[in-house]
Amino acid sequence: MDEPTSAQDLGQQHHLLQLVRQLSHESQFSIVAILHDLNQATRYADKIWLLNQGKMFAQGSPQAILTPDTVSAVWGYVAEKLITQAGNNVLI
């Protein structure tokens, strides 16, 4: 899926990603999705393959890959990692 949430409002984005994740787990399907929203990738992905200029930069769990250090190395932005009350990691 190439940016499946790009034309959706916020509620629909989360509903779609929750549904895809649920169907994937129930049916034991693998889903490959391109997401530019790092927080959505962190929240809904089981594994991350991070590309930098078309080459594999890192792969693994979202919590291990999408860190402030990685964001800084790939995008040149110093992010701050927060943890929500629900336990979700958020990069700002």
TrEMBL record:
Please give the SUPFAM superfamilies that the UniProt record associates with this protein: P-loop containing nucleoside triphosphate hydrolases
The identity of this protein, by name, is Uncharacterized protein
- InterPro entries cross-referenced by the UniProt entry: P-loop_NTPase
The record's section on PANTHER family has: HEMIN IMPORT ATP-BINDING PROTEIN HMUV (PTHR42794)
Instruction: Supply the alphabetized keyword list.
Output: Translocase, Transport
